[in-house]
Known about the structure:
Blueprint: E1 2-7, E2 37-42, E3 45-49, H1 55-61, E4 69-71, H2 77-80, H3 87-90, E5 97-101, H4 103-112, E6 129-133, E7 138-140, E8 143-150, E9 157-164, E10 167-172, H5 180-186, E11 191-195, H6 208-218, E12 223-226, H7 234-240, E13 245-247, E14 253-255
Parallel strand pairs: 3-4, 4-5, 5-6, 10-11, 11-12, 12-13
Antiparallel strand pairs: 1-2, 1-14, 2-3, 7-8, 8-9, 9-10
Amino acid sequence: MRVTFLGTGTSYGIPMPGCDCAVCRSDDPRDRRFRTAILVEAAGQTLLIDTPPDLRSQCLAHRIRKIDAVLMTHAHADHVFGFDDLRSYTNRMPEPMPVWASAGTAQTLRRIFDYLDLPPVPGTTLARIDLRVVEGPFDFNGIRLTPLPAEHGRADMVGWKIEHDGRAFAAIPDCKHLPPDTVDLCRGADLVVIDALRIRPHPTHMNFDEAKAALLEIGAKRSLVIHLCHEVSHAQATRLLPEGMAPAHDGLQIEL
């Protein structure tokens, strides 16, 4: 299983427009963060977690030739507004692309992208999507997929656990609290990635102290934090985390 971080930033992205802070002006390439998205390759399949507004640029930068399915986490703008960029991939697929989402996220996607239930105007194309509501673990072409409920403000939020060939990866990019069942599902995974927005507390995101505590409780073989805002540089984030934990960065690729 190969995990590629296409974006690791918060909703503004880094640098943030109009900001002259040290992180937004940083020369460290790890401080340039697209909005969060993760690509997972396993069993000959390419799975995408979320469709941020930067998706087109991310796909071009990483030369992504195909996307077989999408796993949505929630319906906030920084995670869904690149949804229509799936069109160039679905146009080349024999069947509509499966996209899994929670019930609340699926409802919002149908409202924002109302063409999902309409045929295209003759001579035009639309993203051909098979939008499916996820209610529990399921298998997709030899890959085990498990939704991971999490608290993230008012969002109907789920992270994802992806398992193949004895390896397990769990990603919960936005969260304030992890229910006990979700913690149990993540325990002992080969790689776990969770939200760590900044050092200061935030009402709907984990800060670094909260993320560290959650990752210690989970006890994964490798632990990363994601969704960093411009208040913390990559170098600073590295210093804030104990041994065995690290910040993810755009372009990071991990083989499991």
